[in-house]
Amino acid sequence: MNETLTLHPDGRTTVRMQRRLPHPPAKIWRALTQPEHLAHWFPAEVTLDGDRITYSFGPDGRITQNDPPNVFAHTWGTDELRWELQPDGPDGRHSLLTFTHTFDDRHGAASFTSGWHTCIMAMLAHLDQRPFHHDPATMARLHEDYIHILGLDPVTVDGDTLRIERQLTRPADAIWQHLHGDQATLGDTPPAPFTTTGVHPGPVTRAETGKILEYDTTGGTVRWELAEGTGQGARLILTHTGGAAARDAWRSHVEALSFALVD
Q1: CATH 3.30.530.20-classified regions of the chain
Q2: Which class is 2-149 in CATH?
Q3: How far from the centroid of its chain's Cα atoms is residue 178's Cα?
Q4: CA angle 230, 192, 179 (to 5 degrees)
Q5: CA–CA distance from 167 to each of 43, 141, 152, 207, 233 (Å)?
Q6: Is it true that domain 155-262 has CATH number 3.40.1260.10?
Q7: 71-75, 85-89, 193-197, 209-213: lowest mean pLDDT where?
């Protein structure tokens, strides 16, 4: 695998992926641009009308570059997708595929990348005329690998406030159950999975099932929020006011949670 992540000054993020495929560019081009082939691997049903692309979910897009069989670029709402093909090898029967995806949601990068890796493997299976089996558990493990491959540090500190934003691989209700959120009671200390080493929890001040848990600490407040995310999982947003010193503890805690949800 060959992936890189670029953060742009305007806040946008680009993931770049390269794959060597044992098929000539002209054959791959058909898989990239013809709806009857896209149906076998692309994550949405696609309808083409001139330079307009309609997807079965999400906003429409536009074709921004169409240079067969070398470059096909299009938008999907505000996202930008670019597929480049080059002959690879002396016989011209293989190709180097370079794919870039530019988007706003940096913390969704691992989800996008694991999704596109799976799509490209499905496209390769289609080109090879063999079946492809999508395994959600494998994709969840791949997501966690990409967190590290892409260097996605979920932790930021502003003054004395710590914030962690991390895409998870399970839906909010499953995460809430894993954290024993149903045991949270206003005025009592939070269930242990909502706490970490060195942080002394006070009483729970807010609990919304599957969404939010807040509690006081010495000198601050901890808030767990499970919001809508990319892919099939929820987005965890954890803030700890007065918690900058607990940065490493919270990072390790969320890391352990993420891996536990994959198993």
Answers
A1: 2-149, 155-262
A2: alpha beta
A3: 21
A4: 30
A5: 19, 13, 10, 21, 7
A6: no
A7: 85-89
